Amino acid sequence: MPRSRSSAGYLVVPFAMALSWAGCHGKANTTAAQIDTRPLEEGRALEIARRSLAGRQFSLTPSSSTVELWNRVKFQVDVSVLGEPIAIEYLTEENRLDIGEVPPAATGSRLHVLAASTMSESTGRLEKVFLLILDARRYIYQYNPTSQSRADVTFVEVSERLQRDLWDFLSWYETEKGKKKEP
């Protein structure tokens, strides 16, 4: 016995063809929203650095000091630690233009620590300092995610990465300092 054809069946096929023709096959026909990126702002980065140092009982000097690298590059660092040979520079694009060539981090090292010299205010002699370079290009986040596009790297993630880098540096420094005290 033959089946009767309903009028609804005749509508399904053209509707499916129209959807297919309109671009609903395979790829979605949506445009991804542009997500802009930027490095963590210098003020925020330095606030994290100061908090991390204070949390480990380090005191900051009232003014930043000038350091000299082995390649004769001199510049004023963002943060200096009172009574300890520690200096921190958050290296932005603007700083990079002012400072010039900064030697790269050691091969295989996640942290960018350089030996530098600074003039001691108390003795007037050059003293060695450990200079931590925090390169702003390492702390880039997506600042304008939308409901349609999730940010791959958020402000919070980048802030936490910076804090971990500071803690790792301070742990390394305290270990190095402890090695020098052993007989």
The gist of it:
With 183 residues, the protein is α+β, with helices and mostly antiparallel strands. The chain has helices at residues 7-21, 42-55, 93-99, 155-181; strands spanning 37-39, 66-69, 74-76, 79-80, 86-91, 112-119, 126-135, 140-142.
Overall description:
The protein has 183 residues and is of the alpha+beta class. The chain has one domain. 34% of the residues lie in helices and 21% in strands. It is built from four helices and eight strands, in the order αβαββββαβββα. Strands 3-2-6-7-5-4 form a six-stranded mixed β-sheet. Strand 4 and strand 5 form a beta hairpin. Helix 2 packs across helix 4. About 9% of the residues have low confidence.
Provide tags for this entry.
4 helices, two-stranded antiparallel sheet, 34% helix, alpha+beta, 21% strand, single chain, six-stranded mixed β-sheet, 183 residues
Shape: globular
**Lateral arrangement of strands in the main beta sheet:** 3-2-6-7-5-4
Question: Uncertain segments of ≥5 residues (pLDDT<50)?
Answer: 15-31
Report the major sheet. 6 strands, mixed
Note the gap between the termini.
Answer: 103 Å
Structural Rg: 28 Å
Helices and strands, in N-to-C order?
HEHEEEEHEEEH
Look at the helices and sheets and give the structural class.
alpha+beta
Secondary-structure blueprint of this entry?
Blueprint: H1 7-21, E1 37-39, H2 42-55, E2 66-69, E3 74-76, E4 79-80, E5 86-91, H3 93-99, E6 112-119, E7 126-135, E8 140-142, H4 155-181
Parallel strand pairs: 5-7
Antiparallel strand pairs: 1-8, 2-3, 2-6, 4-5, 6-7
Helix pairs in contact: 2-4
